[in-house]
Amino acid sequence: MSNFFLRTLREDPADAEVTSHKLLVRAGYIRRQAAGIFAWLPLGLRVKAKIEQIVRDEMAAAGAQEVHFPALMPREAYEATGRWDEYGDLLFRLQDRKGGDYLLAPTHEEAFTLLVKDLYSSYKDLPITIYQIQDKYRDEARPRAGLLRGREFTMKDAYSFDSSDAGLDASYMAQRAAYERIFTRLGLDYVIVQADAGAMGGSRSEEFLHPTPVGEDTFVQSQGGYAANVEAYVTTPPPARSYEKLTPQEVVDTPNTPTIEALVAIANEKHPRPDGRAWTAADTLKNVVLALTDLDGSREIVVVGLPGDREVDLKRAEVAFAPAEVEPATEADFAKHPGLVKGYIGPWSPAGQVLGEESSTGIRYVVDPRVVDGTGWVTGANVEGKHVLGLVAGRDFSWDATVEVAEVLPGDPAPDGSGPVELARGMEIGHVFQLGRKYAEALGLKVLDENGKLVTVTMGSYGIGVTRILAIIAEENNDDKGLIWPESVAPFDVHVVATGKDAAVYEIADGVVDSLEASGFDVLYDDRPKVSPGVKFGDAELIGVPRIVIVGRDAADGVVELWDRRTGERVKVAVDEVADRLAAL
Amino acid sequence: MSNFFLRTLREDPADAEVTSHKLLVRAGYIRRQAAGIFAWLPLGLRVKAKIEQIVRDEMAAAGAQEVHFPALMPREAYEATGRWDEYGDLLFRLQDRKGGDYLLAPTHEEAFTLLVKDLYSSYKDLPITIYQIQDKYRDEARPRAGLLRGREFTMKDAYSFDSSDAGLDASYMAQRAAYERIFTRLGLDYVIVQADAGAMGGSRSEEFLHPTPVGEDTFVQSQGGYAANVEAYVTTPPPARSYEKLTPQEVVDTPNTPTIEALVAIANEKHPRPDGRAWTAADTLKNVVLALTDLDGSREIVVVGLPGDREVDLKRAEVAFAPAEVEPATEADFAKHPGLVKGYIGPWSPAGQVLGEESSTGIRYVVDPRVVDGTGWVTGANVEGKHVLGLVAGRDFSWDATVEVAEVLPGDPAPDGSGPVELARGMEIGHVFQLGRKYAEALGLKVLDENGKLVTVTMGSYGIGVTRILAIIAEENNDDKGLIWPESVAPFDVHVVATGKDAAVYEIADGVVDSLEASGFDVLYDDRPKVSPGVKFGDAELIGVPRIVIVGRDAADGVVELWDRRTGERVKVAVDEVADRLAAL
């Protein structure tokens, strides 16, 4: 350490919010260059290399082969798949000296597809899974949490190519199994949840989430084994009912009821249900006005009808309306549509106002899957101070589409019938999904099948964020003194700390280091003669190598201390037994 | 090879001019993504990794420590050192979503300087040498020759930091020695030549050139050990002479002598030298008009006086006038300066025209170092059809500065007195130079010295182009059949080729592969059952693994063939001796 390029810091960096960010900077692993962009110091680079090696091992075990694409890619292929536009502001775009358009690639689906198209032509060439470990770029609106959401980050992205759906399933399962082995070796808990494939398109899609209360993703799981992130949760609709025997709708005065609670109260007081059960928020149909901004910048107003006991979940709405961006309608939007009476919006009004793309308003009307034919609702009458009771779906109003935008609540049924779900939070650590033929079709990747017929190749995409995982491991492995690395990714196997000013101690420590290195251990050696034991111990705790050997006063008697960074336990060991003891651990 | 992600190609790529480019694409090592931008296929990635490992080994042996900077860097530090502008069109520039300016770093001097400034504060922290192996970007005007001049390329760049000049010398020599070891291990001939530090600034500067007739750099060397690239060659000026006894200048008619040859002929015919020796081109002072374009786009006309037997070397002129760009003056430039009479330009004219910044023309006049006080010249009179004889430097004309822009010719004296130089060509494979305090001063990197006084740190910079070296190795190691890798960087140690359709042969080959892998060899195994021996041998020759084992018909008798790719020699060997024989080689 007297020569090692490292300076530990006492103070947390001013811009750090999360523990991993604070500790990785203070312990000398990374250093900020710009918002969400970091340099790697020797300690950090060692941990990163160890994670990458584990990923490489398991990719090789899964039969995947490594390639490497440039970060700087020309626009054309991304244009062909629509991603040049779809990625919006997340993409770093630039021009070369000749005015040619380029981007810093956020992922490389297009490039991998074109490479296979370039080289392969027959089903006999397939299956193939190729991957890279590469620095990627996303111009995040709010880069934060250090490496957890950076603008430059290292990812392993793999892509499988098959000529049949069954082949894709097999390639997918091989990568999925490799991910399980990787996270196990990294000592990271994970839950595999169904996911929405998002802007990437595709069919089967699963995320590996590391469950943690501070995670930025919400997922649902049932006792019976169902797990999905909220964006992928699918509502179970009630059965459609016949409405032949239902009573006609009735418009009633409901002054001063802009909220669901007020509406339910007045309905129960003035208009009790014929069957005697009390009205609840779930009986009301809340109509929420959303504004969608499309890729071309155009703005559309959409009204969403959903049970009054649920809010719109904007993350689910983003998926439902992708690639448009979604936000609540503004006052300006309402001003342009005076027919939408705030607090009293309904799909139908006594004044003849009807929502729907084909209607007089032209405003799209979409509903929650719980709105099915024959369900009756208390809802707005599009007239200030009036609601309508018993408005029956399919009889009294219609809709343009069904959308999954309502929040998921604890107790909602798992779609596979495995019982009610609970909600939890996690951080994404991996994503496997079946792209299907989207990219192959857009870019013309076809091969000849057994019968000499051209078939479009089907693809899978498999990503792990290397630098993100490093941060999550740091986030999960620390205490108030500093980091505590799992052995599989620690920057060094052993940290030898020589203390005091006695030259004889340093000579003995030199010998310990030599014997450990001869036994194959990577050793960090604190040989700084003028630094106090307290500072050295503090640095050792901050840096977080899991095994520490203290060579101090007792060394002259042939005794050193073995310090377990995680448990804090210290045991005395004979100098010449250190290597064997550590090997046994 | 039945699963390996590789397809060899029969045809050279249409855009390939040089051998390495053709062969690396045809043999499946790299694949073009855009002009000067390539993807790495599994074979290429393996060779690249081997070169990188050799570089890492020798960096570690030289005490350098590895870090890693992002490619995407903010503008500020590059602005502080002037490089944001100086790099001109070579820099890829871009903006993030907030309009912040960024670049794709061509090198990282600024970032390394700021990192050390961030972490270090005392002379006791120094010396330190840190390096990275990283993908860099330069928007070359004419990317060409495949990896030899790409727009994205991998470089090892190291930087040393010292508190004293003596320390810098030691750090510099350590890197220089590491480079010698690296090139020796890579099997690459090299010449170390003095170099100009160019846009980077600095003092001592040496390039490692690989001598080859197709090199794009010209260098000079003497028998006595002097070597320099032509940009760095320094002219030895003749001694100044007294001009007391020299005859006065004489304007003579020299009609139709726009060329030096015509002028010398007419001078010898009509105006023989008083001393009887014939006039030669070296006695004439040729005045060449150059146009300099500065960073701010402004254009300046400069007249350069040099002996008539030499041309202006534009590469040397670029260095002399850096950072301005240099080109010969155009007709338009001449039109703006009617006082410059094409073919008859002189520093002095009977009509009173005198060149020089302080003169009536205001046009800077600079001269070759051979123009010293007391030298007499035949030169133009700035009058159509007239020259002047015996115009004496210092007596009859003066100049604003002396510049090294004349071409170097074989036989010119080495500046260190080690004899005449000869010219040769080479390719740059490494560059070591002393930056000195330029970056530290611009960015405020100071440390406290022994006396508690702040001193500015002095730096060195050391670069090796990893991908460029790979291409040069390919360029130097091939024949008409394909590549022939040196063992130190070959993608595999051994290529086992099983031939024919007999399953027993493939079983024996499986065993050979197993035993070779058990002995620690990396093996590429051509196990393709339906491919003809001819195609397999052709692929093996194209791919260029240096040792090939052919398992064919004789395998049933326990005999295989060992094929040396470089010599073409094939010898029969017993199956169970293959591993030992290869180990012995």
Automatic annotation (TrEMBL), chains A, B:
Keyword Lipoprotein: no
Pfam families (UniProt xref): HGTP_anticodon, tRNA-synt_2b, tRNA_edit
Keyword ATP-binding: yes
Gene Ontology BP annotations: prolyl-tRNA aminoacylation
GO molecular function, one term: aminoacyl-tRNA deacylase activity
Keywords from the named record: Aminoacyl-tRNA synthetase, ATP-binding, Cytoplasm, Ligase, Nucleotide-binding, Protein biosynthesis
Record GO cellular component, one term: cytosol
Cellular location(s): Cytoplasm
Chief place of localization: cytoplasm
EC number: 6.1.1.15
Catalytic activity: tRNA(Pro) + L-proline + ATP = L-prolyl-tRNA(Pro) + AMP + diphosphate
SUPFAM superfamilies in UniProt: Class II aaRS ABD-related, Class II aaRS and biotin synthetases, YbaK/ProRS associated domain
Top-level taxon of the source organism: Bacteria
Occurrences of domain Aminoacyl-transfer RNA synthetases class-II family profile (ranges): 44-486
Family: Belongs to the class-II aminoacyl-tRNA synthetase family. ProS type 1 subfamily.
Known role: Catalyzes the attachment of proline to tRNA(Pro) in a two-step reaction: proline is first activated by ATP to form Pro-AMP and then transferred to the acceptor end of tRNA(Pro). As ProRS can inadvertently accommodate and process non-cognate amino acids such as alanine and cysteine, to avoid such errors it has two additional distinct editing activities against alanine. One activity is designated as 'pretransfer' editing and involves the tRNA(Pro)-independent hydrolysis of activated Ala-AMP.
HAMAP family linked: Pro_tRNA_synth_type1 (MF_01569)
Quaternary data: Homodimer.
Free-text note regarding domains: Consists of three domains: the N-terminal catalytic domain, the editing domain and the C-terminal anticodon-binding domain.
Protein name: Proline--tRNA ligase
Species this protein is from: Humibacter ginsenosidimutans
